[in-house]
Amino acid sequence: MRILKENDRIPQGCIERFIPSHVLKDTVFSDMGIIIGGISFAQEGFVITRPGKRKYHICIMTISGNGEFIMEDNSTIISGPGEIFFSNANGQGHIHKPKTIPWVVFWLRFDVDKNWLIPPFGNCGIISANNQNNAIKLSGILESILDEELYIHPEMHRLQRLYAELFMIYFQQLLSIQTGSTKRFDRYRNRLNKLWQAIITSPGEAWLLEDMCKFAGFSRAHLSRICELLYQKSPGEKVKEIKMEHALSLLQYFDYPVSEVAERVGYMNMSNFSTAFKKYFGYPPKDTVKMS
pTM of the prediction? Predict the structure, then answer.
């Protein structure tokens, strides 16, 4: 897994319009923990990198065009009009850039310590705004907040505060589409955590999709759908992740030969294990550095 560092590359031709500082400090935005936000018109060459384990959540709603989010584990998420990409502060880092030109978004960073915002994902994912009109409605309100005439004249600040309150009402309603299902997803997550723990305990087993479904009590389609929603991985990819991480630990901390490590994580064919290991970590198992 790659470890990403904070980095912005905003070439000429890209337009960034930020929420004024007084609006962030003097309106409901401050109470709701919005640190910074704005509207971006992304052109070719626009690339933003955000690390994992941050002090803020990220929401990016696509107004028009399509955006691409490349995660630290190299998985990819595409966001289209009316969709919000939500990235949990405790989740993976990601790179985001236009998939089509231009890609127009509004984006917000939320303080991780604000209790009102229940992250809809443990890592990241897409929240649908039901239709593009909802995205246009929210972006229109944000456009009004960014209207320069409103923050040049102090007497107009009251109107900006009202716009900010209206924006947060719509935005919270939008998030409730996803967070209203939080308890159900928590139950799913708990059942899957028991499954992953069983796989960690017995990594040498094959753990076919049928085995996982039987253990967790899901149908094949339901298990696949929940894994994609919660982890952006298929069940098989999640099993491979567990097996590879376990194999790495065995190679780093014990003196097992590679052939035995392969067997311990369920690979009877050394060549298949070496190929899978190299694909996952980027180097062959024999090159693993021992840890003291």
Answer: 0.58
